[in-house]
Amino acid sequence: xxxxxxxxxxxxxxxxxxxxxxxxxxxxxxxxxxxxxxxxxxxxxxxxxxxxxxxxxxxxxxxxxxxxxxxxxxxxxxxxxxxxxxxxxxxxxxxxxxxxxxxxxxxxxxxxxxxxxxxxxxxxxxxx
Length: 128
Hints:
The chain is 61% helix and 14% strand. It is of the alpha+beta class.
């Protein structure tokens, strides 16, 4: 294997996603039996080169906030119940008290799916 220069390594790291960088850091720690103190400095420099896209990738937990139920309140209540473990009364209270978080600390995929379902039922939703 050819030896890579520091600049070539930094260029390679800047092309990785944050998940790939995290996996690399774990593998590096295991192979060389070190802590993340040194690799984090290298990994921390790479997202700065990515600009705004890297900043968006850093957020891993999202809150799905119901802004309003719209005109189809019953459909929104049904969707809230499907997304959560709330009973009918609790789901109705959540919908009535909008704006209110329906889901908190969920991943991007779950948040997008929940937003799509709630909007399909006629609600207005934001992700935070």
